[in-house]
Amino acid sequence: MKLDQDDVTRICQRVVDHDLDTGLVADQFEISRRRVQQLAKQYRDSGEIPQLETPGRNAYAEYPEDLEERILELRQRLGAGAVAIAHVLRVRDDLSIAHNRVHAILEEYDHVTDNPNKQGRRRPWVRFERQYAGVTAHMDWYTNKQGQQVLAVEDDASRRVFDMIEIDASSASQSVALLDRVREEWEATVPILEVITDHGSEFINTHQDERPCLDHEFERYLDEHEITHTLCKVGRPQSNGKIERFFQTYDKHRWRFGTLDEFLTFYNEERPHMSLDWDELETPADAFDRLLPSPQDDFDDPLATEVSSDE
Asked: Does pLDDT of 19 surpass 80?
């Protein structure tokens, strides 16, 4: 039984003041006889009822006067939630603060939206990613809230989005054009050796099982440039989960920026990414530079994979 302060008072009075047997009192309160004896001894020695310690942190903590301004500035600049803002304050400002304190301030200023579909993770999330930046790219088409078709090319290792477009209609030719533009810009840094896509008609001939289908513009382009085409398993979008997650961020923040280039600068260079070096507030652009292969690296297996787990 968990004791409260009133229980402690009654135990001490019954044993010390009324001389009841400690075993009897222990049975009455469903605790050990040893615990009753400890409380009674403290009462006899000090003449005062022992006080239970209050678990947890101090009732209040010292915060800077501009705490709210810092939190609201980070909310406006990063569009981040309480967990991310609290982490930035701890790392950047060396400020000891719990995310529930940040959440309370965001809630006070109506910056909190409950998600009824959010559930706790039932098992550890295992993440597979390339060891080097630039060698594997994810591509996917997405329909935004304005009905536009959006295509992005994202680096697997660093989460950097090389480029993206917003157009009226998706097509294989647009997929080729964007990938070719990315390769032209980044090929000197590191060659793209693999592209991961779903089974959309913009990426494969859906009427043919044999790959590659050289009659299909995108498949032919990959074959001509010796780029491995890895297809997600049917019905398992998490195979391309990194870019699926990027589109959630796109949906949440794109409206804040006048142009797509401004949004990409924010995503790649300003907003820390939780799946990267979170303790260093690393952005996708930072991670890309860190994960680029150097001449000293053993590049015999450029598509080497690292496995990590979020416990």
From this structure: yes
